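User:
I study polymers; will you set down one protein's sequence and backbone structure tokens?

Assistant:
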Amino acid sequence: MNKSIIPILRISFFFGLAVGGTEYMLDTGSMPAFIKFPMVTLSLLVFFVILLCIEMLFKSLNTIKYLMLSPEERAKIDALEALPLTQQPFFKKIMRWLTKSKPIANEGELMLDHNYDGIKELDNELPPWWVYSFYITIVFGLIYIVRFHVVGDYTQTQEFNTEMAIAQKEVEEYLKTAPDLMDKEKVTLLTEAKDLAEGKALYQTNCVACHRADAGGQIGPNLTDNYWILGGGIKNVFNTVMEGGRDGKGMVAWKAVIKPTEIQKVASYVLSLQGSNPKDAKAAEPEAKVYEEAGAADTKVAALNP
């Protein structure tokens, strides 16, 4: 067997444990710890060098020990090392432990009295690895029965709901930093209280200076009536906030300050104020026109003529 295989396997095993342990202990997200933290890389390199030094030390000690042996003892060691892996003493010892088998010379101890046409049976014991695995399954089954059928731990439905809640939080965290793909063609009117509350907060932070807190209009136009300069409805209001008003005058474009999905919430909140009729609301701008959603007239006619 090649003498260099065992040291290589030993170094790989301990170095792999060090790398895996580092990644487990340091939560660095999707980026490996040895890339995010240069000190981790340096520490791992030092550990690798230490492993190499230890192996070199062992090799040197074994060489000195080998040179101190007599020619006959060296010949025995050379003969053992020349054997294939399956013939090595340590390998045979491991296999005997795993299978609990006896040498062929001792088969007579296992021979059964049953004889059929000259064919006899051996009463071999089950391999220990199989027996222990079977015992483990029994213990696992008992724990499972007690936990889920006696004590009444969580059900599959509860586990599913928990995992879905965790997944939802992960999606929300991802969306905080994910590219915002909302645009005029995809935008829809939001009506959930949570979305409108967030839209209100954004409106109060960015819009009250021009439109007043009640959206009745100040420098900017009144947002609570049905008169619109650049068109009403969610798509037009979203586009106006995102791209700004008329060239040279009117509202600036907010797309560099507010994310498109947040603009959707602001636009939805503004449209939720339609018809609120605040006190001392600003009169409609001369260029503003009454806006009515496409299909709204047909809906009214259908309502009047059921």
Remarks:
- Residues 222 and 258 are 22 Å apart (CA to CA).
- Residues 38-67 form the longest helix (30 residues).
- The beta strands are 111-116, 119-122, 227-228, 289-290.
- The radius of gyration is 39 Å.
